Amino acid sequence: MAGEGLEQQVTTLLAGALEKRPDLFPVSLKVGADQSIRIILDGDQGVSLKDCIDISRAVEHHLDREQYDFSLEVSSAGATAPLELPRQYRKNLGRTLQVRSGDAEWEGTLEKVDDQQITLCWKAREPKPVGKGKHTVRKEAVIPFSDIEQAKVVIKF
Fold this sequence. Notes:
alpha+beta; five-stranded antiparallel sheet; 20% helix; 8 strands; SH3 type barrels; 3 helices; three-stranded mixed sheet; GMP Synthetase, Chain A, domain 3
């Protein structure tokens, strides 16, 4: 790894550490000009403190402190952090999401995810087509990943 830049070394070390943990995946990796390293992880079954420590050690113990004066932070994607990767959507199937795309905004249950899009479903009260009053209808929105500006899991207490 000598001669490689810090970011490339960290990327290689992170990939090696995650090979042993296929349930974990990186959401982001940022290396600042001040050699601060920030890794955000997510996992198919969540991320524990021990997972963060293990990945931190796997990266830190293989970087040369004499070559780089770095700081390292490994954390999990927070419960209120926006979803960024299709794999994060898959782990949240069945949960309520709030999705924004352009001028449109939806809140509904994440019913389907594929490599290109998501499907949200919700119930709405609408006027009856004939007669007075309202009835409940099932609505659905198919939203391509390319159109999603922000998506968050709605936390309910």
